[in-house]
Amino acid sequence: MKKNISINLQGLIFHIEEDGYEVLGRYLAEVKAHFASFRGHQDIVADIEGRIAEIFSARLSAAKQVITLEDVEAMTAKMGRVSDFASDLDDEDEAETAGAPTGGTFGPDGPFGTKGPFGPQGPFGPKGPFGNQSSNGPFGPNGPFGPGSKTADGAPKRLFRDMAHRKIAGVAAGLAQYFAVNPLWVRLAFVALVLFKPFLRIGHTFDFDNPVNFAGFAVLLYGILWVLLPKNYDAPNPDDIAPGTGPLAGRRLFRDTDTAKIGGVAAGLAYYLKLDVTLVRVLLLAGLFAGGFTLVLYLILWVVAPEAKTVSEKMQMRGEGVTLSGIDNNLRATVLDADGNPVATAPNRPVGAFLEGAARGARPAVSFLGTLIRWGVGALLIFMGGSALASLFVALGVVAGLLPSTSLAGGDGRGIRFDDGGSAQGFAAVLHNVQPWAGVVALLAVGIPMLALVLLGLRLILRRSVLGRMGGLSLLGLWLVGVAGSAVAGGQLAREFRTRGSVTTTRPLAPVPGRSMVLGVRQGDNEDGDEFFESIDVNIAPADSGRAPFIEQEVRARGASAAAARQMATSSVHYSFTQQDSVLTLDRGFTLTNDAPFRNQKVTLTLHLPLDKSYRLTKEFVDRLDDDDFQGNHRPSGDEPHRARLLRNGRFQCLDCAPYSSDDENYDSSADDNDNDGGDDNDDDNSRSSLSLDGAPSFDTDLNSYGSGRRNFSETDFNQVSVVGGYRVVVRHGDAFKIEAGGNQDELNELRVTRDGNTLEIKPRDTSLFGDNGGDDQRKVLIRIEMPAVESLELAGAIQADLGGFDRQDRLRVQQAGVSHLRLNGNYGTLKLSLAGPCRTTATGQADDLALDAAGAAELAGANLRTRTAKVSLVGGCKARLNVSETLRGEAVGGSEVAYSGKPQNVKVSTVGGSSFHKI
């Protein structure tokens, strides 16, 4: 048993054995006596004690907590003794001569010398650290990339997160431990990746087609390593694991303010990289004019690199060993004044001194601003999490029947609506027959992240954790249980929505007296005060001659089986309307019968109305119709009722609307009441069938509606167009080529329009993996293209396009992907449509031959596209509405649906997996 003594070396506490303490005490007494005659000897001794503390810290571990006599002797051997150099002045002179610099740009140790970075023994030479003949280099046998890479205790190297020297999560420090480099360089590498593109503007400078998003890559890599790498709290000091050989051995990066011009960064880099300081300054200046990235690098290094103030720091900066002999030599080499006192040289750096002074003066204001930001972010997180929690508990109260549904009311007081139009009543209906445990796990899965936001906000404000480690782990465990349980409960609920079924009934109307009829929609709740599900589609069709008007009602629902779905559609929905003389008022939605669960019920109403009457359409009724329900594909606007008549093609013709002067002249406007194809053969609007099609929505095609920003492009001689992103595009026939874009100026600046052969390519400059493709700002840009002929149109992303005005073309090929929408009009010989993903196409006009290939929930609303022959192939929940007069060939797979009209004489189709072809 030995007696231990606690000592304090520069703020670090060490436990040292008694015999080691006696040796250390004598050693420090010698050091103090030797340097007592030097000015600032107290700071010199403090530097030496700090270096001793670093050596002792490196020799401690979780299994070794006491400094022994052997550790003290190893330290004295590494640092040296006063007696090693104080006895012989000649030896001192020789040491000074040996320590003189031999560098210079063309010297032996310079960048182009034998031992320089580009010499045979430099970092890129065969004996350098990156050469295969260097045993300790990164790629050598014992380097971090070599086959014998091991730690100091002989164990194989492992990647980990260095929690003892971390700044954020220990990822950079852990990588530095593995590759035996300074963590500063790893951190700078991550910062450089984040800032690389914003300052270099790669996509603009080099015009890459797909520039790499370095920021997204760096953040993703850091996050992956944060999650995957294990923690290590006992890693050695990074400065003690640096390789012992190579041009950077023993060096640390500091700012050398003694020879600085601004901040000392260039001088510090010159010492660290063993280059001429003039060369470094020239390279930094060249980078400033080549894009400005070196300015960012300089500022970052100015902030993160410490200033070399003490003798030991200046020795480490130059790569000299911090020993007593080295310290003594540096002090003796200091310039002395006439009295023999050291002269502190004042570098000529007015710019750097001014900036540093300004930074010191602004530090309190910046600190106060940071505190305000921290409080603001914390308050925002508390508000967001608290509001979400309150909404969650109110919703649970509504579902449980403890609170009225108006507790979730929005601004109109009618309750929160689902995406499909359902109201607050739907909460309880959706969760019908759900087990209580499912509600509990769902509450855990949703509520715990909201609670975590509140706790994070409190932590930012209070600057301490309000929840202990065990509490955090408990919440994490409960959240995982909630997620797993919600997945199980969701699977059980999803089985109830597996299959679709529909039931169609006919509901007669009373004969309408007189020559006019009023059509309206009742607002508010129904007569019993129940709230509506607003999943209602209203279609219009002409009634047969001499037949009273009637309503064809189709109810669709989901169920665990086809029979259950049909039974649900039959028994779960209640829909009503009222008729008083010539006034027909529809309910704006349907209600569920008592104790009926929500199974995605939807109702489609087809109003069969006489042609020999005029109609007064209320604003509420007009809002229920689509653009395609009106002549010219333009629905009337305004709050006043409109007078209209019904045409044979099932469209209303507004009688008191102002003429519509937009681009709708390109759409089919020839179908009116003079259309004499007879009967219902031409009643082929998309809405006539039970097939529910949304079609491609219309949009404003006037450039003046998109703001004052403009760009014009001069590309010509193309007959194909390819568009990527989220823009709105109008393609029209014109005698000459013209391309004009209008809208958000920032998005216009990012717009890239080029010609590749016969193809006009339009896309944003940033189309990388982490870039913003098809954002809301791009929808504020309208691109208008005029061209003599178009043979191909390719749309990808969230494009909204309108193509029309081409009276007669031999062929047109259209390719759509993503969530693109296209409104197509024209007269074509051969029309080929390739649709992939949930894209929509509304086609009008005429095509001799139609070829349609669709996959992945694509839709074609082509009831007003008259085709002679059609060949279709649908896969994966696609829908198509066709108008074919002679030949139809097709196949449908995986729940796809095709409805067609036109009385084709030759029909050959096949279906697989719940798909269908049906004639209207």
TrEMBL record:
<feature type="compositionally biased region" description="Acidic residues">
    <location>
        <begin position="663"/>
        <end position="684"/>
    </location>
</feature>
<feature type="domain" description="PspC-related transmembrane region">
    <location>
        <begin position="349"/>
        <end position="497"/>
    </location>
</feature>
<feature type="region of interest" description="Disordered">
    <location>
        <begin position="663"/>
        <end position="707"/>
    </location>
</feature>
<keyword id="KW-0472">Membrane</keyword>
<dbReference type="Pfam" id="PF22571">
    <property type="entry name" value="LiaI-LiaF-TM_PspC"/>
</dbReference>
<keyword id="KW-1133">Transmembrane helix</keyword>
<dbReference type="Pfam" id="PF10988">
    <property type="entry name" value="DUF2807"/>
</dbReference>
<feature type="transmembrane region" description="Helical">
    <location>
        <begin position="437"/>
        <end position="461"/>
    </location>
</feature>
<dbReference type="InterPro" id="IPR007168">
    <property type="entry name" value="Phageshock_PspC_N"/>
</dbReference>
<dbReference type="InterPro" id="IPR054319">
    <property type="entry name" value="PspC-rel_ToastRack"/>
</dbReference>
<feature type="domain" description="Phage shock protein PspC N-terminal">
    <location>
        <begin position="251"/>
        <end position="308"/>
    </location>
</feature>
<dbReference type="Pfam" id="PF22744">
    <property type="entry name" value="Toast-rack_PspC-Cterm"/>
</dbReference>
<feature type="domain" description="Phage shock protein PspC N-terminal">
    <location>
        <begin position="157"/>
        <end position="231"/>
    </location>
</feature>
<feature type="compositionally biased region" description="Acidic residues">
    <location>
        <begin position="87"/>
        <end position="96"/>
    </location>
</feature>
<feature type="compositionally biased region" description="Low complexity">
    <location>
        <begin position="127"/>
        <end position="139"/>
    </location>
</feature>
<keyword id="KW-0812">Transmembrane</keyword>
<feature type="transmembrane region" description="Helical">
    <location>
        <begin position="282"/>
        <end position="305"/>
    </location>
</feature>
<feature type="domain" description="Putative auto-transporter adhesin head GIN">
    <location>
        <begin position="717"/>
        <end position="904"/>
    </location>
</feature>
<dbReference type="Pfam" id="PF04024">
    <property type="entry name" value="PspC"/>
</dbReference>
<feature type="transmembrane region" description="Helical">
    <location>
        <begin position="377"/>
        <end position="403"/>
    </location>
</feature>
<dbReference type="InterPro" id="IPR054321">
    <property type="entry name" value="PspC-rel_TM"/>
</dbReference>
<feature type="transmembrane region" description="Helical">
    <location>
        <begin position="212"/>
        <end position="229"/>
    </location>
</feature>
<dbReference type="InterPro" id="IPR052027">
    <property type="entry name" value="PspC"/>
</dbReference>
<dbReference type="GO" id="GO:0005886">
    <property type="term" value="C:plasma membrane"/>
</dbReference>
<feature type="region of interest" description="Disordered">
    <location>
        <begin position="87"/>
        <end position="153"/>
    </location>
</feature>
<dbReference type="InterPro" id="IPR021255">
    <property type="entry name" value="DUF2807"/>
</dbReference>
<feature type="compositionally biased region" description="Low complexity">
    <location>
        <begin position="108"/>
        <end position="118"/>
    </location>
</feature>
<keyword id="KW-1003">Cell membrane</keyword>
<feature type="transmembrane region" description="Helical">
    <location>
        <begin position="473"/>
        <end position="494"/>
    </location>
</feature>
<protein>
    <submittedName>
        <fullName>PspC domain-containing protein</fullName>
    </submittedName>
</protein>
<feature type="domain" description="PspC-related ToastRack">
    <location>
        <begin position="532"/>
        <end position="658"/>
    </location>
</feature>
